[in-house]
Amino acid sequence: MSNDNIIYPSVHSFSNLSLSDSSRTGFGYNPYKGPSSNAITPETSNILINKKTVSLTPTSFDSIYDRNILKKVPEISLSSFSFLFCEIVNWTRNNSKGIQDLEQRLNTLGYQIGQRFLELVKTRERIKYSKREIKILEILQFIHGAFWKSIFGKTANELEKSQDIENEYMIIDDIPLVSKFISVPKDYGNLSCSAFTAGIIEGALDSACFPATVTAHSVPKEGLPLRTVFLIKFDESLYTRENLRFN
Amino acid sequence: MKVYSCLILNKAGGLIYQNNVNPGLNSLSSNDFLVLAGTLHGVHAIASKIKPIPSQAKDDIGVTNTHNTNTNLIATGKSQNANSNQSGLQTIETDFFNLYIFQTLTGLKFVIVTSPNPVVHNLQPMNDFKSISRGELQKQYDSTVKLFRQLYLLFSDFVMKDPFYSLDMPVKSSLFDMRVKELLV
To answer: How far apart (Å, rounded) are the C-alpha atoms in residues A131 and B131?
Structure first.
């Protein structure tokens, strides 16, 4: 078989493997060997029993799963993230039927990240203060502060309570990282790509048992054309709960 | 140096962005700008082909080449090496305006029109031919090189990372507009 005809998995280092290679941990699938490379032998079962974590890809000794989860993640290039997000928006735009649908889809994508990120931030915090927010204000402060910082590297600019409506709160970010380079054309109306971030907040709040709907609205101010308000509308039942608990 | 106008051409020579940053230039219609863009694109392409044939230049390097450089030096007062136009047309200097072109690796062209070179009264005679520095006249060129770098940076940030921009089409990004004005005004 000539080398050109083989389609390798996307991991580039796979292409450097050969028949005689075995992984560092004794585990892992080698495309050259085929299924037999995953066979369980006395040797490999020994590894399985004695090691707590086993990397299943032969080259993944520095993959995300092998790093200590409690350690701070290395920073990610804003450029590469921006290009990725640019493609995400493009892809959702091609699939969506309208502006509202597009925002909803971005929100859904962010939602899953929020659910996971809450877990991660809390795990990292647990060593220092083992505490779970049970009040509305506390969870909002956590989102506005620690949570925002671990995602975007800075805290959000303002946290406000709506004056007119009881169950609405606002988190305001002057320069939202996600849509830093995006200028929405006029024919897209009041679309805000920060709907993605709104989804992250919503996901985190929902998994923390604070059911809410979060929407992003672009509210430019002089000198701050990207200023975005994240409107958080909590579920009515939440207030009943809070009243029962604390009054 | 005052920047009057800034243009961006795509790799086919089409005008994708035009901004009259500072007033002062005789106003051209949008059609004229398109023609200007196309012309510059063509001239730039031809200019990048004008250069001595390497083998010939090597043969009579002792005689003609130095002779040519010397006549050039006497005629223009500028020391230039033979390969200076390898990347095409870079500047047009006139009494009324200067025009600078910068081409990126992808074939995108940034063009800015600026005020002409300042009149330098006590221009030092160039005694030392070995020093390539063109003194006062070089300064304006150097500052445009910096401007082009900044422009390129803004373009790759605010245009290329914008999901609503389609490649080689006119730039409508309001953020880019704002940043360009901040940079050039």
So the answer is: 70
> Quick one: A34 and A127 in the same domain?
no
Is there a domain that residue A73 lies in? Answer: no
Say yes or no: A91 contacts chain B, CB-CB below 8 A: no
Q: Please identify among residues 176-205 of chain A the ones whose CB lies closer than 8 Å to any CB of chain B.
A: 181-185, 188, 193
For residue A68, tell me if it sits in a domain. Answer: no
Per-position b or e across B62-78, b if 16+ CB within 10 A of its CB = eeebeeeeeeeeeeeee
Into how many domains does chain A fold?
A: 2
pLDDT tens digit sequence for A12-71: 455 555 555 555 555 566 666 666 766 777 776 776 666 655 555 555 456 666 677 777
Test mutation, A177, A181, A193, A221, chain B, max B CBs within 10 A: A181
* Interface predicted TM-score (ipTM) of this complex, two decimals: 0.70
Query: What CA–CA distance (Å, rounded) separates B31 from A164?
Result: 53
Q: Using one digit for the tens of pLDDT, what is the confidence trace for B152-175?
A: 999 999 999 999 998 889 998 889
- A109 & A190 share domain: yes
Counting every residue written for chain B, the total comes to 185
Q: Which domain holds residue A10?
A: 3-62
